[in-house]
Write a structure and sequence with these properties.
alpha/beta; 6-stranded mixed beta sheet; 7 helices; 10 strands; globular
Length: about 240
């Protein structure tokens, strides 16, 4: 197992298994004895082909789902048995999400979209506005706060999504296929921005992808095939052994 020494553990998965009920009865297991840790300041890519279980793994890390068995600890706290309401609090307070399809509210302004997670925290309006404007400036969109998402390019929409993820000051960002809806040029810009967030701000990033060329932007690769980890270590020179 890949280990980074002298660093605090943010994510710890111990013996994680996940099964889903089948329509005709029985269970289909999609994760088998998943074990790994992620430390503060790492940039990790979780990679695998379609159906490998990588998205299920991300849902567990993001407190969007719970394992069938095993223990998941986030910042040293066992969140395995939390209720849906408790998991929602964990997500809102500790994790920033960036999704492939941006998940922006099309009829709300850019500023409103970035402020949304802060509203759920009960933050006063003036503080929400200040914080959202600060994040939009950080991603280079300070002049677009009154625009609607439909008026923006794909790359700009993803930067709004990143600003929204950063608004709550998370130490961990989960990015699910963050360049999947972008062309290669815009995708590279977003990936470079993730590297900057990681290196300059020390934000821990876990990125889900099925493409090795995307995973190479990270510093560590966890490769999943058929629900099992078959590689965990530094980014290899090529994907021939994955």
């Amino acid at each position: 197992m890949y280990m980074k020494k002298n660093s605090d553990i943010i994510i710890s998965l111990k013996g994680i298994n996940k099964s889903f009920p089948m329509e005709l009865g029985g269970q289909q297991q999609v994760l088998f004895d998943i074990n790994f840790t992620v430390h503060t300041g790492e940039f990790v890519a979780i990679m695998g082909p379609s159906g490998s279980g990588k998205s299920t793994c991300m849902n567990i890390i993001g407190a969007l789902d719970t394992p069938t068995s095993g223990v998941y600890e986030l910042y040293g706290r066992d969140v395995t048995g939390l209720t849906p309401d408790e998991l929602a609090i964990v997500r809102n307070e500790h994790i920033g999400f960036v999704f492939q399809q941006f998940n922006l509210l099309s009829k709300r302004s850019v500023l409103d979209n970035v402020m949304l997670p802060l509203m759920y925290r009960g933050m006063p309006m003036d503080e929400r506005v200040r914080r959202a404007r600060e994040m939009l400036k950080r991603v280079g969109l300070e002049n677009f706060e009154s625009y609607l998402p439909t008026q923006l390019s794909g790359g700009m929409k993803q930067r709004v999504a990143i600003a929204r993820a950063l608004a709550g000051d998370p130490k961990l960002i989960l990015a699910d296929e963050p360049t999947g809806a972008l062309d290669s040029k815009m995708g590279n810009e977003i990936l470079q921005f993730f590297k900057k967030l990681n290196k300059d701000m020390g934000i821990t990033i876990v990125m889900i992808t099925h493409e090795f060329d995307i995973a190479k932007y990270a510093d560590r690769l966890i490769h999943i095939r058929d629900g099992r980890i078959n590689y965990d270590g530094p980014i290899p020179k090529n994907d021939s052994k994955l």
